[in-house]
Q: What sequence folds into this?
């Protein structure tokens, strides 16, 4: 769904004086619509798919929506735990930092592999090849400077 579709849905819900919406969390697809509904002032209940997966019969998106609507109108659904905006932002930073650290480790391993292919085991001689000494040696290698080891 795009922003225009979200607005059309919000207008449709308002036309029928709907104030509370339940929706299933599937992947990350629910997030933009969830945010749009909340910003529009709706009471939005985010439900885990595990609460509706045991519905009998043939499952389609339409049947699933009808079940969620029925369960919600009867008060049988409980909302998922959602982080506050501040905690969500911190979580995003944490996962981004974690990703950068993983990428850094992968690139360090690529550097070590390249050095091994050049018959140089700098990682054995120096504990941290990305430290001051390691980078100085790598820069010297890249510059073509002869390095004497004694």
A:
């Amino acid at each position: 769904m795009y922003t225009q579709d979200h607005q059309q849905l919000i207008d449709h819900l308002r036309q029928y004086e709907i104030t509370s919406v339940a929706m299933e969390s599937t992947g990350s697809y629910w997030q933009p619509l969830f945010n749009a509904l909340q910003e529009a002032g709706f009471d939005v209940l985010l439900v885990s798919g595990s609460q509706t997966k045991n519905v009998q019969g043939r499952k389609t998106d339409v049947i699933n929506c009808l079940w969620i609507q029925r369960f919600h109108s009867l008060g049988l659904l409980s909302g998922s735990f959602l982080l506050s905006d501040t905690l969500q932002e911190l979580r995003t930073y944490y996962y981004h930092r974690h990703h950068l650290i993983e990428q850094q480790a992968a690139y360090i391993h690529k550097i070590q592999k390249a050095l091994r292919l050049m018959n140089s085991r700098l990682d054995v001689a120096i504990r941290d090849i990305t430290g001051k000494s390691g980078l100085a040696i790598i820069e010297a290698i890249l510059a073509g400077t002869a390095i004497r080891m004694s």
Observations:
- The two ends are 66 Å apart (CA to CA).
- The first strand starts at residue 20 and ends at 25.
- Helices lie at 3-15, 30-39, 61-73, 85-117, 122-125, 132-143.
- The mean pLDDT is 86.
